[in-house]
Amino acid sequence: MDTHKTKSMKNIEEQMQNVGEDSLRYHVLESAKNFKTSWVALGRSLYTVWKDKLYKDWGFNTLEGYTSKEIGIKKLTAMKLLRSYYFLEKEEPQYLSSEYAEQAPATTVPTYESVDLLRKAKNNKILDNQDYANLKKDIFEKGRDAQVVKKDLTNLIRQRKEIDPEESHEKERVSVIKRYLSVLKSMKKEIEISKLLPPTLLKETESLIKKLEEEVS
Question: How far is CA 24 from CA 40, 114, 128, 200, in A?
Fold first, then answer.
């Protein structure tokens, strides 16, 4: 039986033997072991580990080091789990209830990839409330595959941009200006702290910041 287990699964089981069964650390390992069917439990546990920096108590300098070395999960996956769980907790807590977990058919329980797509759709200014509601129905009621959802979402966003290209262009312009503002404000702070550049340059930077702020106001 052991010969069919992955290296990461063997590592998890070995780690479980070295920590107390009542500890959160054991619970995280157990959730990782059952990752395919209980990503919500793992996301909840990892969120606690990240929020309270418990990985440092366990001998790891970073969350990435902990997730990759102890439970065999890459940084990208760990961040998607954290974001997906936190999104549900904040925006759709009903899907974290024990009633939903018990009553929902296994075929419709969404993956963390699907929830991550829903999270991105919620923050996308191009999509409206009805778009979000339709996407949520596809994910939680119809149990559509994440790849299918992603394809449909990409097409929908493309259609929205084509409907109003001027509005899309304006949003992109504002986004670029905001990035410039962020850089300029950091530069201004450095100039003030270091005092290595002439005051005239500081005034010019402040003037440019003010002009750009007027552009996005």
Answer: 15, 27, 40, 56
Give 41-97 as a DSSP string.
Answer: HHHHHHHHHHHTTHHHHTT-SSHHHHHHHTS---HHHHHHHHHHHHHHHHH-GGGGS
Does any domain span residue 110?
no
Q: What are the pLDDT digits (tens) for 91-100?
A: 999 888 877 7
36 part of a folded domain: yes
Highest averaged pLDDT of the listed ranges 38-42, 46-50, 145-149: 46-50
CA separation for the pair 26, 31 (Å, rounded): 9
Q: Give the structural domain span for 193.
A: 166-216
Final residue in a domain of this structure, among 91, 122, 151 = 91
> Between 179 and 196, where is the model more confident?
179
The model's pTM is 0.60
